[in-house]
Amino acid sequence: MKKRPRYFTPAEVASHFTSGDLWVSFLGKVCDLTPLMKQHSGDVLLLPIMECAGKDISSWFDPKTRDILRFVDPVTCCERYYTPRGRFVHTPPSGPRSDWNTDLGQPWWKDRRYEVGLLSAKTRWIRVVNTLTSQEQLLEVCSEETLEEILQRYLRHNAHANSYTWKYHGVVLDMQKTLSDNGVTDDDLELEQLRMDRDLFVPAILLYFNDDLTEG
């Protein structure tokens, strides 16, 4: 059985913004470039990447080829990578260089070893209400995530979350399905069109204790 990819919110990617912990997203993928930063530590070619730490850099790429954008140099009439922020690691120099290693293997943007998951195409907010304690937690989740995956996010707020039945409007939720598949619709677009504050209409998921406390 193929393992499901892990989804991340833009906010989660943005939290990794230092040279010692650097993530970027592009073309729907999320990559941890921390090993690349360590491997090329001190290299000036890391600067464009560091400037975009924690951000989406899809604008660097051609979505059809999934490679760096290219252009024809008006001086040399040769095709080159388009890097307006400056040349970065694994992009070749503009001209012949004796110190350029052409045998570098896969460039980092094609190397799957750096991939940690996928960027959510649409995030949404939910309220998770513990009916036993009346505690409420506001969570930003990925629309692609199943309820089981959302539960994993919630565990840091309640280590015994597995001991609860999750319900919406009185109906037990299928933990193997997404919110939308469970009938928890995403009304953000409609609310925006109606110019209504979506923060006032965040769906509430109610948790009911099962009396079989699991270990935290």
Automatic annotation (TrEMBL):
Ion transport in keyword set:
no
**Subcellular localization(s) per the UniProt record:** Cytoplasm, Cytoskeleton, Cilium axoneme
BP GO annotations? cilium movement
One CC-aspect GO term:
axoneme
Keyword annotations of the record = Cell projection, Cytoplasm, Cytoskeleton, Heme, Iron, Metal-binding
Keyword match Electron transport: no
Domain Cytochrome b5 heme-binding: from-to ranges: 5-120
Record-level Gene Ontology MF annotations: metal ion binding
Task of the protein: Radial spoke stalk protein that binds heme under oxidizing conditions. Required for the coordinated beating of multiple cilia maybe by functioning in a redox signaling pathway.
Q: Which family does it belong to?
A: Belongs to the cytochrome b5 family.
Q: What is this protein called?
A: Cytochrome b5 domain-containing protein 1
Native source species: Poecilia mexicana
